[in-house]
Write a structure and sequence with these properties.
Elements lengths: L3 E5 L15 E3 L6 H7 L3 E6 L3 H16 L3 E2 L8 E6 L4 H12 L2 H6 L4 E6 L7 H8 L5 E3 L7 H11 L2 E4 L7 E3 L10 E5 L1 E2 L10 H5 L3 E2 L2 H13 L4 E5 L16 H9 L5 E5 L8 H9 L6 E3 L7 H7 L5 H14 L4 E8 L6 H14 L3 E6 L17 H26 L3 E9 L6 E5 L5 E5 L8 E9 L3 E6 L3 H15 L1 H15 L1 H19 L5 H19 L2 H24 L1
Parallel strand pairs: 1-8, 2-9, 3-4, 3-5, 5-6, 6-7, 7-8, 10-13, 13-14, 15-16, 16-17, 20-22
Antiparallel strand pairs: 11-12, 18-19, 18-21, 19-20, 21-22
Helix pairs in contact: 9-10, 13-14, 16-19, 17-18
Bound molecules: 5'-deoxyadenosine (5AD) and iron/sulfur cluster.
The site of 5'-deoxyadenosine (5AD) has 12 residues, from β16.
Length: 581
């Protein structure tokens, strides 16, 4: 009997003719009794490779598993379920995945209840799933990027049949909303604004693995961002393979500038976006970025090559001159902007001269940092069919030379920070030394500094004192306790109950009727005390007058509402006190 159920397999040839308008589906999470009993208390790990889109998928997968009663763990040995979330952008990322899957052979043999699921971009490539089930028959479920919301159904199917379930869809995918999610980071969050990519750069597999470009409705994005702001997040990064294209598919004038501005207005302390294709970077976008102080002045603008000829072969839709012109426009409108990029070395038949064009472009732009890659042929993409006359040694030599110039400009950008006081969002303690905290400047430069762990998630002012090229060292300017106290005060003011309590307190103080009632109560109290030594009837009368005034005061709607909030606010304050310990 076959050990695998093939529900569906990918077909990369379908990638280009996806013309169907994506449907918006609101998904409900259903957990079968079988899955609930399997999942209850089961620990799980998700290993993610690749880009931020995959990280966000991890959070959603994690949200689904938690709905089935499972619990996230960091401890490999106690995990009863593992998901490997793969990347297909370059071959070396794929090689790592095969190694990872192989590591679970022993575990799967020892524990029949252990589940191993493989998903992500690599599964969207033709032939990969078949290869996997041959070499690793202990895999429970294989699925792709378009059906992560089916994880529980697929796992249940596997539990029912005890077979490997393969379900990989090839169509562009609808937009699924209502996805559960367990955010990995409690201070900074990624929000998808578009899925997929329509650019079809000739070297890139993403349009085939993530489907055609589709934008999420603006109201859905704003709702998600508002929830993050209310939950106290310090940073949102809007995600898309090409955020600039946002809204074009609505054909109603909505653009990325509209979306960026609307999110900035929600008041998130730091707003970033990734990635921008240089082809459709509008002036309107630049104006919005320049206008809002909470939009970080940091733009990731992949150039890929400095040669117009290579750019043409890559299908990038801009020339070297157009790119440099855009850089000039950006630098003029946003002085001090941090520019970062992606560069591919050794595209098929890249000449020495064409490579020099990349070098001179980097010298001119002077990037704050850059991700550099050696071209990796991806089966199914047009570039993979090109005959290549550049040998590996030459490619590596060019790569090393490129790294040098990038190091030089990275170092230059870091050196500029020394002596400056800059706001830094603290991401947490360094893994190597818990007394050292790490964080990022507005321009995304990594900063290490000495400070207590409770500063995690705060934006603190640091004086930059040392440059180490890829990171800088900073010093706190203020007592960290003061910083924390101020931020707690701000958070408290934001808590609805506390804000209302404080506002009522102010109104009570200023209300004419209550001011005069307070005066009357005071004098009634004095009269009552004075009459204590006189006859009983005088005292009783004075006491009655006092009590009736007090009753009137307590029954005033402002005072009553204030009193009603008292317990709630006290509970919040107790929590704060605990946190401060
Ligand atoms: N080979 C090397 N690098 C690639 N990238 C995309 N496809 C390939 C490939 N086939 C790089 C690009 C892109 C980044 C995410 O990965 O520079 O911007
Ligand atoms: Fe790939 Fe080009 Fe789309 Fe970026 S814009 S994901 S490089 S096809």
């Amino acid at each position: 009997m076959a050990k695998t159920i093939f529900d569906s397999l990918p077909d990369m040839s379908k990638a280009r003719d996806r013309v169907k308008k994506p449907e918006l589906i609101f998904d409900d999470v259903l957990v079968s009794p079988r899955l609930a009993s399997y999942g209850k208390g089961r620990k799980f790990i998700i290993k993610t490779f690749g880009c931020q889109a995959n990280v966000r998928d991890e959070e959603i997968l994690s949200g689904y598993l938690e709905k089935a009663g499972m619990v996230r763990t960091d401890n490999e040995n106690e995990a009863g379920m593992v998901i490997i979330n793969t990347c297909a952008v370059r071959e070396n990322a794929e090689d790592k995945v095969y190694g990872e899957i192989g590591n679970y052979k022993k575990r799967a043999k020892e524990d029949p209840s252990f589940s191993l699921a493989i998903c992500g971009c690599m599964m969207q490539e033709e032939g990969v799933a078949e290869k996997l089930i041959k070499s690793y028959p202990y895999i429970s479920v294989i699925f792709g990027t378009h059906n992560i919301h089916k994880i529980l159904e697929l796992l249940d199917w596997h539990l029912k049949t005890n077979k490997t379930i393969v379900s990989i869809l090839s169509f562009a995918g609808d937009i699924i909303e209502n996805l559960p999610s367990d955010r990995v980071d409690k201070h900074q969050a990624f929000v998808n604004i578009t899925y997929g990519c329509d650019k079809f750069c000739t070297y890139c597999i993403v349009p085939y693995t993530r489907g055609r470009e589709r934008s999420r409705p603006l109201d859905v994005i704003l709702k998600e961002c508002k929830e993050l702001v209310d939950a106290g997040y310090a940073q949102i990064t809007l995600l898309g393979q090409n955020v600039n294209s946002y809204g074009k598919d609505f054909k109603d004038g909505t653009s990325f500038a509209t979306c960026l501005e609307a999110v900035a207005k929600l008041g998130i302390p730091r707003l970033r976006f990734m990635t921008s294709h240089p082809w459709d970077f509008s002036d309107e976008m630049l104006d919005v970025i320049a206008r809002y102080p909470n939009i970080m002045k940091c733009i990731h603008l992949p150039v890929q090559s400095g040669s117009s000829e290579v750019l043409k072969l890559m299908g990038r839709r801009y020339s070297r001159e157009q790119y440099l012109d855009l850089v000039k426009r950006i630098k003029t409108k946003i002085p001090g902007v941090a520019l970062t990029t992606d560069i591919i070395v050794g595209f098929p038949n890249e000449t020495a001269e064409q490579f020099e064009d990349t070098m001179t472009l980097c010298e001119e732009v002077r990037y704050d940092s850059a991700f550099t890659f050696i071209y990796s042929p991806r089966k199914g993409t047009p570039a993979a069919k090109m005959v290549d006359n550049v040998d590996d040694k030459t490619k590596h030599e060019r790569f090393d030379r490129l790294l040098k110039i990038i190091e030089e400009t990275t170092n230059e950008a870091s050196a500029k920070l020394v002596g400056q006081i800059v706001p830094v969002l603290v991401s947490g303690p360094s893994k190597k030394n818990p007394e050292i905290l790490s964080g990022y400047t507005e321009g995304s430069k990594l900063v290490n500094f000495k400070g207590p762990a409770y500063l995690e998630g705060e934006i603190v002012d640091l004086k930059i004192v040392e440059n180490h090229c890829h990171y800088v060292v900073g010093e706190l300017l203020e007592d960290p306790l003061l910083i924390k106290a101020r931020s707690l005060k701000k958070a408290l003011n934001k808590e609805k109950a506390v804000a209302e309590f404080l506002s009522l307190e102010k109104q009570i103080e200023e209300d004419e009727e209550l001011i005069s009632l307070r005066k009357e109560i005071q004098s009634a109290q004095k009269k009552m005390t004075a009459s204590m030594n006189g006859d009983d009837s005088g005292y009783i009368k004075a006491k009655e007058a006092y009590l009736s005034l007090k009753k009137r005061y307590e029954e005033h709607p402002l005072v009553k509402n204030h009193e009603a909030l008292h317990d709630e606010v006290e509970a919040i304050l107790l929590e704060v006190k605990e946190a401060l310990k």
